[in-house]
Sequence to fold (454 residues):
Amino acid sequence: MKRKVVIISDLHLGANPPMMSQTARLAAFIDSLASAEDEHLYLVIAGDFIDFLSIEYEGKLSSFSGSPKDIEARIQIALQREKLVCEALGRFLRRPKCTLVVLVGNHDVEMALPSAQARFAEAIGAGDGYQPVFIDDGRAWNCGRLLVEHGNRYDFANANDWDGIRQFRSAHSRGELPPRELEISAGSEFVATVLSPLKKAYPFLDLLQPQGVLIGYLLVALEPAQLSQISSLWTALRANYQAARNRDGYRPAKAGKVAAGPGPAMDVFHSPLVFEDIARKFEVPPPVFIGPYKPWSKLDFFARAPGSNGIAELIRKEKPIPSDQLARLGVVLRQFLKDDELKAGDDFVPYRLAAQGMTAKEELFDTVIMGHTHHPERFSSNGSDVAYYLNSGSWIDTIPLTSATLNSAPEFEAWLRKLVSGDSRLRTRRLTYVTAGIAEDGSVRYTQLNEWTA
Fold:
């Protein structure tokens, strides 16, 4: 029988404040899916389905909810918030020749645990003969010569500690304590300890991409008091440095992250040279680097003139932003513009190169599909209908920043004022998904990157 696969990713459901405002449209999209008479239909949620990093329980956020009580409470909170989507997934699961596949990402590591899976299955009304399939142990999901994975294994800052997760699952299933603590990724620590606590004041923090160093810069520009959190802010810079080491699409360097395989790579974008270049433009002393990760520096050189107020305070007091502050921040943000979008250098390249390597293996894979980056992409060879790499993107809201805005001081100031005030008119979204057709012999017949507009 032929097979059709629909892939969505990075929904980040359950977050508070919400990262995705289009849950009703997501439910409608799921309801629109039905198998044809001669094919089996798979709906694959390719990781970061629920954003556990942004769900408070008993007034606390956590980079990993280690206790069974915490895990069950947090997933119950998320599922209660997302009833529309749960009901739609339940209807899909009960249709003939339809299978729901859920991959674990880096924001929903708890979904690897049996208790979380049981609560989810219960919420969507799963029963005998129609249960969701969980890919929860570091594997990719395969359908013929199609491979689907979240993609965070190519991002050192956000790689999962799969050895630790497997040990935790084993102990969790027996009501025992795990033999060691889970190794939390730098990216998850940054989100849970720096970003999420600030989201009540700045709901946009999850919606500007790329996170990490960009958010670090912007936070200090808005709130100079964040300089006191220098160690936490540096987590963002270190995370980006680690990610840059994997530019060439190599596998994770630690065996516990799935497989070993270090390789040569150069940190082109987040090297000291970039900071020196920005410093020259600002006409201030460059930061002093000690070792590969530690800049004991005057971090406010990129954010503000000495002694000035933070931009957020000026906006809240309805005061004008001094032109030199505006110009300095504009110079920094321009470092992240590529093709008139906010991007961090070549951060999306490792995923495509990894896909090239996997599809180069004869008779194994025709197509690799990932999520994680939130950036929808499609790459094929010689204009083929079958792409060797696709990224399904994300359904979360985003806040764009263009060169036209940065090049106009009045427009840039207006953008910052809307950003700080939480103006929803800044938000936009691309509700993207991937479809792939699998022939009876397992070959990939077609691949499409689509946008849901209904």
User: Anything to note?
Assistant: The first strand starts at residue 2 and ends at 8.
